[in-house]
Amino acid sequence: MTNKGISIDIWRFAASFLVAAIHISPFEKINGELDFFFTAVLGRIAVPLFLMITGYYILDMARENKKALVSYTAKILKLYIFCIFLYLPLNVYMGLEGTAEGKPETLILSVLKDIFINGTFYHLWYFPALISGLWAVYFLIKRTGKKAGIAITCLLYIIGLFGDGYYGFIEGNGIIKGFYDALFNISDYTRNGLFYAPVFLYMGYLIKRAGKKGTYDFMYAFLLFLLMSAEGIILHRSGMQRHTAMYLFLVPLMYFLFRALIFQSGSENRKLRNMASDVYIFHPFLIVAVRFFSKLTGTEKIMVENNLLLYIIVCLLSVGTGLLCDILRRLRKSNVTPFRKPPSP
Questions:
Q1: What's the rounded Cα separation, in Å, for the pair 75 and 55?
Q2: Burial, 63: exposed, middle or buried (Cβ in 10 Å; 0-12, 13-18, 19+)?
Q3: DSSP secondary-structure letter at 342?
Q4: Of 16, 25, 18, nearest to 309 (Cα)?
């Protein structure tokens, strides 16, 4: 990869703020259609970008050395466990979901489902989806050819598509709807590690293996984004969507967009990469914190009811949190390094 150009980590950092926008709807009070476009169309590029970056770097290494995947999984698992405990007080404060009739067995099943599939807070679904998606694609890489891998991941995505953006098409079919109803008893959404994550992880891996860019990648990406925008608006206005994470044109759009970005990318920026993760992890906590503070100070009309201002405040606080985390990481490293055992003479 060339050292010239914009680091892929800058795009990852920018994408993390699109995720925050999805959870705040900054333009909702200004214009509903604009807010839908910003959060449910443009914003849906963010998570596929994260997944493709992981597929690009991790799966190629894992193909040659399984230990790389094991090590990365352990790292993500530790981060996920940290997030579970970080958001546990909020889960308790807001009330655990899925506790119908207060039955202990219902609570246990709900907690297990959240930990292993849905995530224990609304943005934490990404971690179990990433882990399960990575291992699923790894076994596809090891046991199938390229064509079969593409076919399987695309088929899984299409199945997920009809449980998400194209749900309206299957609502009238009793047998098919029954299949999806059974799925939703296990996972709240088809945006998960089985139907959603594999195709983007696999595309990232394939782009890495191909090692070349196309001449018109940006142009194709722009045209496909226009098509996805039209797709999203049509589905939204027709009331087809159960959720807004999955679009038909999102897959080819991300293929050309990622290829355009990664092959014109400069050197990696570890600080921005870490800060992108910090923004993703902490922004829901900060949304709750700002709402709580505004309630205490009587400034709800200014800080909370104005979605755009709330979004700006949360983004600024997220950056501040990321900078603080970066300082703590540096301090941790500086404290550990001096006590390392010196090499033998």
A1: 15
A2: middle
A3: P
A4: 25
Count CB neighbours of 19 within 10 A: 21
- Express as a percent the part of the chain with pLDDT over 70: 92
Give the DSSP per-residue string, 79-147.
HHHHHHHHHHHHHHHH--S--GGG-HHHHHHHHHHIIIII-SSTTTTHHHHHHHHHHHHHHHHHHS-HH
Q: What is the DSSP track for 244-290?
A: SS--TTHHHHHHHHHHHHHTT--S--HHHHHHHHHHHHHHHHHHHHH
Q: Which amino acid is at 249?
A: F
Query: Is the full-model pTM beyond 0.85?
Result: yes
Whether the per-residue pLDDT at 247 is higher than 80: the answer is: yes
The structure tokens 């038909």 sit at 248
